[in-house]
Each structure stands twice: as structure tokens, then as C-alpha cells.
Amino acid sequence: MSKQIHKAYKFRVYPNEVQKVFFAKSFGCARFIWNKMLADKKEHYQLDKKSLKNTPAQYKKEFEWLREVDSLALANVQMQLHQAFQHFFKQPNVGFPTFKHKGKKDSYTTNNQKGTVAIDGSFIKLPKIGPIKANIHRSIHGLIKSATVSKSPTGKYYVSVLVETIAAPFPKTQSNIGIDLGLTDFIVLSDGTKVANPKFLSKLQNKLARAQKIMSKRALVAKKDNRKLRDSKNYQKQKLKVAKIHEKISNTRKDFLHKQSFNIVKNHDIIVIEDLNVSGMLKNHKLAKAISDSSWSAFTTMLSYKGDWYGKQLIKVDRWFPSSKTCSGCGHILGKNELKLSDRSWNCSSCKSENDRDLNASVNILNEGLRCLKLKEPLVQGS
Length: 383
Ligand SMILES: [Zn+2]
Known about the structure:
Blueprint: E1 3-14, H1 17-48, H2 71-90, E2 106-111, E3 118-120, E4 123-126, E5 130-135, E6 143-151, E7 157-167, E8 176-181, E9 187-189, E10 194-195, H3 199-224, H4 233-267, E11 270-274, H5 278-281, H6 285-294, H7 296-309, E12 313-317, E13 345-347, E14 354-356, H8 357-382
Parallel strand pairs: 8-11, 11-12
Antiparallel strand pairs: 1-5, 1-7, 2-6, 3-4, 4-5, 6-7, 8-9, 9-10, 13-14
């Protein structure tokens, strides 16, 4: 069965000077109205623990310049703020919405109203500002719903176009797979495939570490000379360098994760992963780098929505299930302290088989997922 889905296409755009000014104003107004509405909500919440229902329109009298930008941009801020509060109230790990700062994630979102957002040749048309030169590196399919304009810390402009489209399911492959988040590899699959972390990522990370060191040194020099960081040219130059490497790492990593998740969803019908609490694990400093680097949670999210788009099933098994310590051959479970983090393989004392640590874990994850699925089946059929 085909499915209606939302898909985002991100394009680099090259605004002229007038358009840059318009974008800067729009980012500023979006940020201002977010902070203003949030401050008022916060005050109201502290007074009587209830949420204040405020709208951008009521601020336009006092702050007339809000009328100069696309009103949909402000309406979208209201919606985003509402969602942030919903998450705060409903999800235990989500904190109170925070204020936005200039230069960090500058963006605004507008909607398509009967063709006000469109792609025309090598231009993207947006409300109130018209066509902007763009690098349309791929064609879009479907109905445009909205567009988000953003500016990266390195000064590049992007437009992300959200499209409503139909996803046709992938053919079934009759193959099921368990995935373990590897310690040395990015992932290890239950069929024996090991996917290494891309080498260029670690090279970029070393480059980033070096650049950050220089940046902190320059900050110290500026401080010694009693200069403000924003007036220190050397510091600013290095800061831009650091931001550029960050951007490169983020883009390469995203590409890598998209490719890996796409392949897995295409090649397997049932996909089982461990439901790791990444934010909980990040507190363990030894593992922190490896986990954040391999972006396990982003990868899980991609598997989840791609599986949904293309008719494949993703199962998450309990993170307390002892996937590493159980012998996939006979089910024997190792005792406390019998498996060290550094042990790459272990011999089962019960069935004498040698278990590769990560491969053994991924086979256990697959089996556990299939077992949970079988347990659930009667419930699904009975309902
Ligand atoms: Zn065994």
C-alpha cells in the first residue's frame, strides 16, 4: 500500500543584497517574536502554572516593524512554540523551551499558498521576496507545503522545501536483520556485515580538534590584550574556520547515515535494533565520543521513518536486554564482570563456541526482536 508522506529537500540559495536584508529582518522578527512570546508565557506560567494563549498579531501594534516581514513566518513561530510547550508538558526528558540567540540557527518558515512557494528553473520563489537563485541539485516530486530559510554559521543560505508526496513500498526481501551499535565499527549486522565509521570523519575530527585549540589560544591572547572577542580579527577568522569544519562533519555524517539507513531498509523486511538511551549513555565519558560520533540516535530516527515510508518494520528491543553477554549459540548468559568492555570476543563456557562480541550481540538482538514480535502477534490478531 502506498503511503502519503512528508519529505524535505534542502537547497543552497544565493540571495542578492536586497534578499539578504529581507532574510536578516525575517530571522530577526522570528527570533524576536519567539523570545517575546516565550518570556510572556514564562511569566504567566510562573504566576499561575497555566499556559498563556498569546498570538503574534497582538504584538504588531506595539512593534510595528513586525509587519514588514512575511506574516506566515510569525504564525509558524507561534506553532513551533506551541509544539515546544507540548513536548515539555508531555515528554519527561524535554526541558522548558529556551530563548533564541542571534547567529545560532537563524531561520524562518513560510507556507505555500497556491504557488507562493515554487521551484522555477534554477530559482526558488518565496512569498514577499520573489525568486532567489538556487542550486537545484535534484528534482522534487509532490505538493510543496512549506519552506524554511536558514543561514549557517559560515554565512551560507539554504531553503528546505517540505513536500507532501506518495511513497511506494519496497519489494519484500524475506530477509530479517539485527543491528548492533559497534564499538569499533559503526554498526554490525547479524548477517556478519560490519560497517566501519568512515575514515574521512575521523580525519575531519582531528582537524577540528586542532582548529579549536588555535581558537582558544587566540581567545586567550585577546583577553590578555583586553580586547573583546568580536573585535579580535584573528579570533573571528579562526572561529569561522571551526564553524566550516563543523559544517563539513555534520554534512558528511548525515550523508553517510542516509545511505546506510536506506540500504538496510531496502534489503531487509524486519529490522531489529537496541533501544539505547543515548542521552543517558552520553554521561559515560569513555563512550561519549564514540556514541555521539556515530550518531546512533539520528540513525535510529532515519530507520524508523524510512521503514515507515517503504513498508518495512522496525523493532526496538529493551536496552537492558543482555545482548552482549548472552551466547547466541546456546543462550548461556555470562556472569557479572565476566565480559570487559575491551573484550572483542569471548569463548562460551557452556557450548565452547567463540563469539565475536558485536556479531554475537546483533544475532541476539535479531532473535529477541523476533521473539517479541511473536509474543505480540496473538494480540494483534485478536484485536
Ligand atoms: Zn554458548
